[in-house]
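Good morning C.,

I know you're traveling, so I'll keep this short. The sequence:
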Amino acid sequence: MNGQKRYTREANVRNRQPTEPTKPIGTAVITGASSGIGAAYARELARRGLRPVLVARRMGRLEEIATTIRRDTGTSCRIWRADLSHREEIERVAAKLETISDLDVLVNNAGLGLVGRFHHLDAAAHTAMMELHVTAPTLLSHAALPGMLRRGRGAIVLTASVAAFFCLPCSVDYCATKAYGVVLADCLAQEVRGTGVRVQALCPGLVKTEFHEHLGPEWDCVRQLPSPLWLSPQQVVAASLKGLTTDRTLVITGFPYRVAVALRRRPLLQPAIRAIIRIGHRRMYSSTRRP
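The tokens, ready to paste straight into the viewer:
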């Protein structure tokens, strides 16, 4: 009898007609949503029943993503155009976040790459990266957290990088600011433990996005690395959301990168790792090195 009931239930499931899209259960705000990982988050969170708010600089790209989401999921999207490398824009978005009464997810994903020797880069470039990678996630998380705590639920994701665990020449600001994101997530996760709010630092390695396309010719040898080292944005987002379900504070995507970070934390191996980094640095920048 039990087997008969099971087969009956399975037949009922197979014969069930597709249902209309369900009413969104909450709001998800995603920064850097115009491409890559941010766009993948927006699509997947909409598919899971959340109403996305897309935040980025490029209005045209945001409208394209929003149109795709509405077509594929039946979920409407809001668009906030903002350049989060400027303090006044960060504060404007933070003020809007405080008005969302059903904010369930905040993904601090906006980012940029900055390659070059520290003293060759102008002050504006350093400032823009710190605003984008440090000030923006700090102030936006600060704006989102009180409402989440009152409701007893929510998730904050900070997109960092495996670069947070390494000291890479010619990527000084990038490594330092991404390390800040990992520490910020870890500290916040400890503060909110037991409240129903989850905080995660997402640390991808190489991802097939526009990010690497915008870096200079010295990055060509990285772009030519074998395909097993590259993940798709969808794979990264899937790992992040799976980590949220198990309340994992740190998610490092890709087996090779998890191994690299684990080895990085072993003191006896650090000299060898530094030597590999120096060799890679010379290879990358030998053609563009200035005195």
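Safe travels,
E.
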